[in-house]
């Protein structure tokens, strides 16, 4: 669970910084679509305000991939996605962004209730499966 929390923190906390790092990309202009794309890629990857959060975000992706080897997918995905949403809102708020008011808070609460129910049911299901398997063991 600690790794899932770390992934969510890396993914969520970097989102507002990625958004700030892309400021100014709309002023990059080239003739063809291919040269426009290459100019935008150059703009992003030579911009440390974008590149550092991007690398941290991608390290979260590597951590998530490694964590999936020991974590059930049906638990990992909702936990990480909902927590990363919360980290994005909190980091954005710390950076002075508007986070949507009462409706956003209600959405966060409902998301956390739903994830808690998913994780709780997975834990209960795993516990009951373990008890069923233990009853078939003969001594």
UniProtKB/TrEMBL annotation:
- Where does the UniProt entry say this protein principally localizes? membrane
Alphabetical list of InterPro entries matching this protein: EmrE-like, TMEM234
**Keyword Cell cycle part of the UniProt annotation:** no
Question: What does the UniProt entry say about where the protein is found?
Answer: Membrane
GO annotations of cellular component type: membrane
* Gene Ontology terms describing biological process: glomerular filtration; pronephric glomerulus development
Going by the UniProt record, its keywords in alphabetical order are: Membrane, Transmembrane, Transmembrane helix
Q: Which family does it belong to?
A: Belongs to the TMEM234 family.
Protein name according to UniProt:
Transmembrane protein 234
Source organism:
Electrophorus electricus (Electric eel)
The organism that produces this protein has a lineage beginning with: Eukaryota, Metazoa, Chordata, Craniata, Vertebrata
